[in-house]
């Protein structure tokens, strides 16, 4: 009958319940560094397309931990030995794998800090390891790829890891892009370990194919949906403008931590405890609140871009499989510069082009391995009975151009 | 084949797709007043209990409109005449019924403005009616209860309206409180109209019973869950403190619109166009950003309360069916005042009590009417074959007390 | 990596996967006695109302076993000790709890054999225990209520057992009566054991209320739906007629085992191994195939009744909270007897009345016990903050009358 | 308020409700020819793998009609004109498209009658057209491909028709093979008509890709799952044996209609009204009841094969991408013939091989057409940005061999 007073169970619409297995993990979740993830949206600005997509990195991290619990259960059922200590390390590592994400990180990884989020995750883990008397050491070792049992890292970070398992399912659930829903239960049931390497049993091959197709679909239908894309590009431009103004000594209203990162170029080397603390105060609320305020700034460019996002009145965007010619942007920039009476350089905040790329399966990265009935192991691309897995490993590139819709409407 | 360039369809994980039926409604949705609802959470601080509960009033309003479309379809199938113009008015009225909500409105209806959100909704509708050349007139007439076909108001606001139909379903979906899920499809299928009054066909009676039980459950399990409750109470206390400080001339950091409402007592009579505009700039981001900043304010009370919410490190709360004795709060206040070296008055920010009440079905309000097989009409409470509907109409009252957990832990 | 060649996992649309934990249970499932349950529909003739309701007792038994696995996991997490042997016994007992059901057992429990299905379940278990060298002994002991740890029986058979947990969920899922869906995950999470007695934690009280409302709804909306009811009543009449004909020496076409039970009155005392074997050959296919053949029998009554079910062209049925007067049936019988030129006695195959009863919670049976926060234990009816649990324990009685629709149509 | 007394709404766990739009369609559904479909399983013997897969052709036909209603609604929203009469014809045609299916038709199309089920569907439609005074004429015209508006046939029968739309979704739902779930809502939303030809809008292209992957997966994971496959092959062998015995004058027990088809070779030319009636009495119950009885026949082969299916104690089956060598079957046959003391010819009932083939998209059949943003139309394979649709149109062939498991176990 006993059950300690620390809350042990969290409701989840996808899995029913997520169990928090022990008080160390409970305490990590309670830590302000982790609670911060409640204020960071998992899908950035995608809610402008899919109004349900407001779920957070907090929720995803719990979900990924739940997937890890299932995976451990399945592997133990198949007589893969995983010690109590290893189990705990796996749960901690997956729980904290994304703790280094900043707000809107896809859009802003280079606008705010010049550091990859995984690197910051590691900084947070090390900091927490101090606070928790070294209890995270094994988790960190696994996360850094320094542990000899390779499959443990693969469960955390590979082409079929618990991270993807949860985020595809969760993003599909909350956005309502039903086609993105994967059968994570089945995928996990098909996992096994041979010589400390993660493999998938052969009868799971169609589920993997389906998983990769779902991932491909989620990229084009959600993560790279043209409306999300243009919104994130506008956000990047807005930050660029904000920095320019600060550089010129023009003041802009925003929270202190955000102001710090807008005024200072921060690289890996700069990250000491203080900076990490400042970073830990930054979340979606700083950015959106700033945009709300900047709508009324008297810099025309800053206010225009901010309004676009706040009122979802975005630039027009076109996608194509061919590059857009430089002449086209030149013409648009010329027109805008005349029409709005701004310099050509400033017009480039409203007219720009670029490319996006996605690859459902990366043949050059560590493969998804299939354990065949004859006990040999093969890359999933070879093991499939059809060419579409090969096809899925070809990268797809699309080109975009963005410009004010007034350009075409009149 | 034709389809105009205005986006006509929105993904919804609950209904699959929500269709935007015409360009007037499309333009209303695009209006900044309505887009603001994207930044107001439907369930306030409930995400501190149910981490998935981040859906917004924007999404709910679209969902309620979708339910209305279904209801109109069903009623027309049953040969209830609803003209094209009436249809449009119904859709607009339900779409805008909640547009007057401020951030965290359950907690803050009296902290920010002394005006009921329905009154503000009406102000917004009137303003939009001007902008849209009177095209909202019939919607407003229905919303104000001035239209002769009474069932139309009942579809928008009654004990079984499209608002509840959507929010129970949606809150259940996003929070994962599965028991709250109602069968809105079936409930709508059971609707009919007799003499311009909304009725439910008799065979729907068990679904109504289930609907009321679900609503009761959602109240105690989610809306009045003790953790949501204490968080909202702390939020109210925080705003109270912020106002006190401002009154004393001590500055606090927050957005301009929020500052306005913290510094001025606003009532119905004050609402002109300007004030409405200021109100329209206020959303969850202003509040949460302020709390984030206030964590570092040097007023101990303001910073303590703010941190509680931001880090989800809340006061302890107890619920009971009996009132808590005054002596108990007195003792707690005494202890806190000594321990933290604050005045008794200030200690009351941390120790307080009160009561909450819920009633699944209100017998004194307009009833849910049952159309019996013999064509007579009866209040659902009478028509049921059992006493539990009667039971559900008894209000339930619970008493709470909140205090710092340090009081009991040491 | 190892996994034996016995299939260990079964797909289930409700739970994702059901794991078969060991080879003893695997072998029990493979046994023809258990495979027979694949041919017995869980909801009898309800598919005439809900066309999806074709799921079987086989599937339900697996589902109930899965629920039991979850319950054991939760209880162990709460430090209730359950040995490996007890675990296995619990799984076997729940798996086999319904193995004694005959086809359409609600309609036919008294038409085919005069023995309660639980008694036959026990006969099957004993037989299997012989075949499996006594490995079912503990399961049987628990099932018979002879084991000292009382909660184990309660998990198998009580007002909140794994049987109900699965069948409500499953019947709701397959029929599409969404309101019947219960939150079994949450209910199980709330279970605990005190002094070897099953209790529910207090915070689960709304879920229990919801569970009882769902059960009540499933009774009136599905199990006792008037169309299911009349179909089952007609089936009972058909068997009655078939027996009469056999008694008169008139032959009827049907399978051998079915013929045996139609020609012999079987009671408890008759059940030896041979009879059990004959019984084990009986399933829905015998009954429906017989009806199909009897459509062309030259006994007017037998053929008419059989056609009604096969073509879903049923008698008219009316339900009321008041008894139907004897005069009404008399008049109908008179009319039918004239119109169809049959004796009054034969007319009674087409005109009859009776009553049905349901009680969502039985206060006289073993209660659902609530473990309150102060560690006392209370009947759920007392512990609830409202009267509707009391209301739910009042039995509801309804009266029905059935007659050919031609009586009213002309 | 009016609503006639014919039941107008059917519960469906997938779509919520299916509306029966008028009394002609209601009467068709009530017809014994259509009611028969309640007794024909949609997925044949797949329930031996997926215990939930007991849904029927009756339910599927209603579901496909529901999909058609949605498609008509979407097309009309896009200003495709569809008259009331055409609408009705479309609904009738899709409702009856599968009415000619016999029991276990994938396994038995050549064992029972030498006629394709679509041909028999047409015979039923013509018969019903007589009974219903020519009201099915337009439906029949469309079904036969004789109507000038080609898209109407495409909605009923093409590579993306309402039939597939429902059966993939339904088979996935009831079996629990979650990966087979397609987003039919979205697919239908993407439909349009140009020059009376069905097209899909370009932004639906990923959903089509997902649809084809789902279909491919359902083939290998469900329809051609090795256990379903071997069960269906055994069933075919059983019927073959039954016919041989009848030819030799040895009697076997089974229902009259089944006996007729076992004793007579029936081709297209034989189908008169009487034969159609006999065929209409045949369903799954005849087959399974016969197998149950044949378990006790004294022909060893007939009884062995029958028991295999009834007790799910099947032959061993192996699949491979290479042909199995003739020597292997020869050896197995030799062994069986010795071990069981049967002729080699009889041993072939237990040892046999063959191949199966599936193609997710058939490039030689009528294509799925994409309506591109520039208003040109292209085959989906060309329009996709990647090669995997091309890959999906390559047929996959697998070879199988079946033999008694005793052969390998000892």
TrEMBL record, chains A, B, C, D:
CDD domains according to UniProt: HDc
Alphabetical GO biological process terms: dGTP catabolic process
Matches recorded under SMART domains: HDc
GO molecular function: dGTPase activity
InterPro entries membership: dGTPase-like, HD/PDEase_dom, HD_assoc_2, HD_domain
Alphabetical list of SUPFAM superfamilies matching this protein: HD-domain/PDEase-like
Name of this chain's protein: HD domain-containing protein
Organism: Flavobacterium capsici
Organism lineage: Bacteria, Pseudomonadati, Bacteroidota, Flavobacteriia, Flavobacteriales
């Amino acid at each position: 009958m006993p059950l300690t007073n620390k809350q042990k169970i969290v409701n989840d619409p996808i899995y029913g319940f997520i169990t928090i297995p022990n008080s160390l993990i409970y305490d990590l979740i309670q830590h302000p560094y982790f609670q911060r993830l409640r204020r960071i949206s998992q899908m950035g600005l995608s809610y402008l397309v899919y109004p349900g997509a407001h779920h957070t990195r907090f929720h995803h991290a719990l979900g990924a931990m739940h997937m890890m619990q299932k995976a451990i259960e399945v592997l133990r059922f198949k007589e893969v030995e995983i010690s109590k200590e290893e189990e705990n390390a796996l749960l901690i590592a997956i729980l904290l794998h994304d703790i280094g994400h900043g707000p809107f990180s896809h859009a802003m990884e280079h606008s705010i800090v010049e550091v990859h989020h995984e690197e910051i995750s590691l900084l947070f883990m090390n900091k927490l390891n101090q606070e928790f008397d070294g209890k995270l050491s094994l988790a960190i070792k696994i996360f850094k790829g320094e542990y000899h049992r390779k499959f443990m890292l693969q469960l955390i970070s590979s082409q079929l890891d618990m991270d993807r398992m949860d985020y595809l399912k969760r993003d599909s659930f909350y956005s309502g892009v039903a086609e993105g829903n994967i059968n994570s239960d089945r995928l996990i049931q098909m996992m096994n370990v041979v010589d400390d390497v993660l493999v998938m049993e052969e009868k799971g091959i169609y589920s993997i194919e389906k998983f990769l197709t779902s991932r491909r679909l989620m990229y084009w239908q959600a993560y790279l949906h043209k409306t999300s894309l243009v919104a994130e590009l506008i956000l990047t431009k807005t930050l660029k403008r904000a920095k320019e103004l600060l550089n010129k000594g023009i003041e802009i209203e925003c929270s202190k931590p955000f102001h710090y990162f807008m005024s200072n170029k921060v690289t890996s080397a700069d990250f000491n405890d203080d900076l990490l603390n400042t970073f830990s105060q930054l979340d979606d609320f700083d950015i959106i609140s700033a945009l709300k305020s900047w709508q009324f700034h008297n810099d025309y460019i800053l206010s225009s871009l901010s309004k676009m996002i706040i009122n979802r009145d975005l630039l027009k965007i076109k996608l194509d499989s061919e590059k857009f010619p430089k002449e086209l942007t030149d013409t648009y920039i010329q027109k805008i510069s005349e029409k709005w009476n701004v310099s050509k350089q400033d017009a480039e905040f409203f007219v720009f082009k670029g490319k996006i790329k996605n690859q459902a399966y990366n043949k050059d990265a560590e493969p998804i391995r299939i354990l065949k009935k004859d006990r040999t192991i093969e890359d999933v691309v070879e093991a499939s009975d059809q060419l579409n897995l090969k096809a899925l490993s070809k990268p797809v590139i699309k080109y975009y151009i963005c410009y004010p819709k007034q350009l075409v409407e009149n």
